[in-house]
Amino acid sequence: MIGQSVRRREDHRLLTGSGQFIDDMPLSEPLHVVFVRSPHAHARILSISVTAAAACDGVSQIVTGTDVASLGPLGGHLWTTVPPAVDAWLRPELQIDNQLLLAVDRVRFAGEPVAAVAANTPALAADAAAAIIVDYESLPSLVTPEQALAPGATPLDPTWSDNVAVHVHGTVGDVEGAFARAATRASVTVRLGRQTGTPIETRGVAATLEPRTGELTVWSNTQIPHVLREVVAEMLGLPMHRVRVISVDTGGGFGVKGLVYPEDVLVPLLALRVRRPVKWIEGRQEHFAASIHSRDQVHEIELAADADGRLLGVRDRFVVDIGAYNPLRLTSAANTVAHLMGAHRGAIPRRRSTRGSVGNGAWSGPACARCRAGPNRAAPSQHPLFGRNALEHRHVLPRWPATHL
Questions:
Q1: Within 10 Å of residue 381's Cβ, how many Cβ atoms?
Q2: What are phi and psi of 182, to 5 degrees?
Q3: Global model pTM greater than 0.70
Q4: Which fold has domain 24-141+198-290?
């Protein structure tokens, strides 16, 4: 295969309409799920009334946060244990959050689910969801990392001391020496705006229980079916051999489908309770509020170079806005540090980061592209100092030792 063009095997099936996506699953009389989501970025839940919704036609199940709180928090499912080499290099300090399947007492982002309705058709489920009355008390929201990190800012998680979810600080090479011998220096603040993935196919989950064997089958367009299987089995108290997760054809992912979301566990839970197939397909507007965002970073970068414009060292203090919850734990911060220099070649950089806990999750390989943008966008600031354009600057960097990773 090396050096050869390998033909794709899936094209004929997909191009002739024979693909099998999550909404194509031939389920027998499934229940359809609609979620009630918070319109507030931050609010206290005073009460939830489901009386009117329960009386709607075709409704089978309604669950709220108090109904499923005993299952515990969703928790982090990637990098739950920091590798020893990473721990020694970055010396991470983490505060762990506890995201519940459905919010209880307080919501922490606009779009957070507070209730779920299962009914015979999507329209009936939507009607019942609209009949659920949630009484909120709006609370102040922190919408930028600067607000979250300001002195006196109220922690989003009451068990935390502040709003810093992860703090890492790592050094590779003789950075101080590089700056001391530099012919010139430059500094710049780079802001990378929030983005999100918008796959043609939104997220979706379907589940059914086989009554004879007790096997729970979950169909999902997730990018991490093995992790999803572990989380579903653990949270629902099932042995692993009784849970089967099938990853069907996926109409785009881009990392958005690379997490375990509350919906991924709640749909199988409802299938266990009602003992019939249950299905949820995310709406497009719902996708923008309920699926993760990324890229929201601020970098304060210092560059040191010799008289020829060759990069000798880099210092970077950056803040990543990671949202109301941090299911990826250390991943985004560590990837930002590890990929900081990208294809640049130069003396060893120093990387240091502080991470605020107010914005979004990770998208398209957490942090890789956005952190590489830092030195690239800092390069134009060097024009008056180095007498080179940005493109030329990126081609004159000498090889830097590979011992930084």
A1: 17
A2: -70, 140
A3: yes
A4: Aldehyde Oxidoreductase; domain 3 (3.90.1170)
